[in-house]
């Protein structure tokens, strides 16, 4: 009976998320900030291989999301590709080890990254114009329990004053929000995703946590 390959942690080295136009949306290096530019260039080098692999794998019965497999190996890293149903391209590099790297493990990583992307961009307010501004409401403290009717009336007066002040601020403000067409409000497609949408502490923490988890719990 053949020996099973040793179960070793997968050491992720970089992750790149590309738009359908191959423009970079997010680049992360698991080996440090200093390596992010190198990761960007290597991900860019994978674009031609991705395009060729997509054409080769184009089949009517193929699932909408496509695992593109091993793209190429360079130095001590192996690069894998994945395309989501909305044509986002994910490029993942893994450190080469003396063990078998299973495709099922790589696909699971890609799907976990895809879920993080979905959580990050499913904010309906991200598609609002950058010039959009909001006026903060005046703070309101509810009346304490046990107050008599007169106290409640005073509280209602305070609410009315705050509402009037807010309305006056909105009317007198020189900064007005541009009208957004109803069909464009809170609507965005893959081509509309901006790098800033993925530049959030929550998304970065999720990606870093994934790298630590696959690295055997070591940062």
From TrEMBL:
Query: What cellular component GO annotations does this protein have?
Result: cytoplasm
Q: Short name of one Pfam family for this protein?
A: Sedlin_N
Q: Which GO terms describe its biological process?
A: endoplasmic reticulum to Golgi vesicle-mediated transport
**Superkingdom in the source lineage:** Eukaryota
Family that this chain belongs to: Belongs to the TRAPP small subunits family. Sedlin subfamily.
Q: What is this protein called?
A: Trafficking protein particle complex subunit 2-like protein
Organism of origin is Vanrija pseudolonga
Q: Which gene encodes it?
A: trappc2l
